[in-house]
Amino acid sequence: MKNFSKSLFLLVSFIFFSSVYSQEIDLKSYLSYDDPQLKLTGGVKMVPVETPIGIFNVFTQQVGNNPKVRVLLLHGGPGATHELYEPFMSYFPKEGIEFIYYDQLGSYYSDQPDDKSLWTIERFVDEVEQVRKALGLNKDNFYLFGQSWGGVLAMEYALKYQDNLKGLIISNMVASAPEYNKYAKEVLGPQLDPEVLAEIQELEKNKDFENPRYMELLIPNHYTKHILRMPVEKWPNSIDRTFEHLNPEIYVYMQGPSEFGITPEATLANWDISDKLKTIKVPSLVIGAKYDTMDPEYMEWMSREVKNGRFLLCPEGSHLSQYDDPEHFFPGLIGFIKDVNNGDFQKN
């Protein structure tokens, strides 16, 4: 019995230390960079992008090193920054998932040319493809994550280049601007105090968006209920920096100044690819949230409309669910990536 106990102890000890050693080697590999230049910049790489008016540089930063799982993050706005995704640092590395921060052209950490001809979906899609090539992402490892406007860009990229993808994540974005506007008008608006709604509508009717009263009304009555469900004084610094660094020229040109839908003069006002979703065949995760500015039921429909879709609902979340419902957001997202990577993915 003593010999058996001793043998069992040695076996368990061997397995334990072998496991620890294996994890240590994996950790060393994850925290290394194959490119010598990335070792000097902490993973930052400025990628040159060709446009119709010249070559400009966009910011990227690789976090981790996993040649089998590489997630490119498309931020919202348009005109916001990668700072929205700083919470990913608390979840992806411990799972061994490589991810890449990226500021689109015109955003704070990238070049900011002053030419409205650049702010089109088609050119942004081409930019993402150039970034993909520059970073060496391919169908064996490339996961594309897009949230809000980034979701628009991710869907449009998939429609043109899905053969380059291993997985697609559409977060907090519907496939139709008119549907977004309808939900804002018919569902979100009526939830406001009638007097507050009337005052907001009057300001918007007069196009008085620069009036301080507009944000005074929106922040406590809309932002803290549907954008990020926290008291403003508790918003993380990454959110403050994102708003501080937002490029309003791009945002207003493409989205419009209103926070209750896309305004008619904005370039995205009539954007709608609902009837094209069925052509997306790559494994796809659609993330919605109960308190989002986007209709979660419509997003669930989207997950069934694509050929290989899964839906994730964040029951406590809003438009930025990575902040106000990380308990559902990150396990669901990480589970999808692992399932696809391991060949275990099953659609809804």
Topology as a string of helices (H) and strands (E)? HHEEEEHEHEHHHHHEHEHH
Stretches with pLDDT under 50, minimum 5 residues: 1-25
Please give the domain count. 2
Continuous helix count: 12
Q: Beta-strand level of the residues, as a percent range? A: 5-15%
* Average pLDDT rating: 92
The main β sheet shows up as: 8 strands, mixed
CATH fold topology of the largest domain: Rossmann fold
Describe the model.
This protein is α/β, with parallel strands linked by helices and 348 residues long. Helix content is 44%, strand content 15%. The protein contains 12 helices and 8 strands. The protein has helices at residues 2-30, 36-41, 121-135, 149-161, 177-191, 194-205, 212-227, 237-245, 248-254, 296-305, 321-324, 326-342; strands at 44-51, 54-63, 70-74, 98-103, 142-147, 167-171, 284-289, 309-314.
